[in-house]
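TA notes. Do not distribute before section.
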Amino acid sequence: MNKVTAIIWKDIITELRTKEMFTSMFIFALVILVIFNFAFGFSADITPQASSAILWVAFSFAGMLGLGRSFALEMEGNAMLGLLLTPVDRSLIYLGKMIGNVLFMFIVEIIVLPLFVLFFNINVFEHAPSLLLTLALGTVGFVSVGTLFSAMAANTRLREVLLPLLLFPIVIPVIASSVKLTEAVLSGGGLTEASGSLKVLVAFDIIFVTTSAIVFEYIVED
């Protein structure tokens, strides 16, 4: 865990110096919320189903920007080569990068939530624990696959195009389950109302994290 923590801390220090990933993710999520706010005509009668979909559209596309920058920074100055030359298992490098990406995306989500309440007049704080758990599970599933595909696309010229083409078809179950869970929470039903989606989301998180950690070694060596 010390090696994983070192990789996470490296990413945090890099982000604190540049603020590129966090700034781009936050601004993009904010723009999406503003666009949908205009589209609904500043209506306070938006349904939980629509609001949960809007929330995850903002999170998904903002997360895509952050994932795109994750390994692009490592390619500058052959920093990725330095990581690969360290005497650690490749899966630990993946876990460090993944946890760092989850941390950045989750912080953006926490900051965006009050703006979501302001724009759409939906009380999310009443069900904060259930909503935070849903965000955490959805973020882990999204980022676990995204980190793997970000490493895969980093060496290509069209990585900005290739990453979403690879990622979104795979994470559709994660996004769909997250939307269903968020809808259940915002409507006041809680997680038990969408227990099937909760089980699917947990299962996909376990499968994606485990599989991606195993496959990562072959991705970076190729």
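Switch to the second chain here.
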Amino acid sequence: MSAQAMRKKMTNTEDDYSEAFHFPQGLAGFSDAREYGFIYEGYGKIICIQSIDQPEAAFLITPWDKERLGAEPTLSTDSRSCIHADSQSDIMWMLVLNPFADKQWVTANLKAPIALNVESRLGLQCIRPEAELEVRYPWMPQPS
């Protein structure tokens, strides 16, 4: 399945997201947690990913929004190889959300987005070097 197909699937409540994704390098703060299950309730654009190796490692993620943020990041050839992505179009970019950092906003980490290759079920968190990128970008108002 292509990244574009995965985006479309996020609106279909009948699809199965039970197959784990492997993160060869883990995620920030959890380098040993490499297998993640995706939990999607079938509505909205927020997915919970939880480590199968270390259940305390759980994150909310949402798709990159080109209208708000501009072009998606790019991966080097070596990084694409790590997740078996032949081209940038094979990658679905996700942002890690933090509902606890701010009382008014759910924030998004623009500094460390996640690249997913849906076909290979591989993921990679990419720490971006640009100093201007926010770790706590106001993404959406806190739900009431």
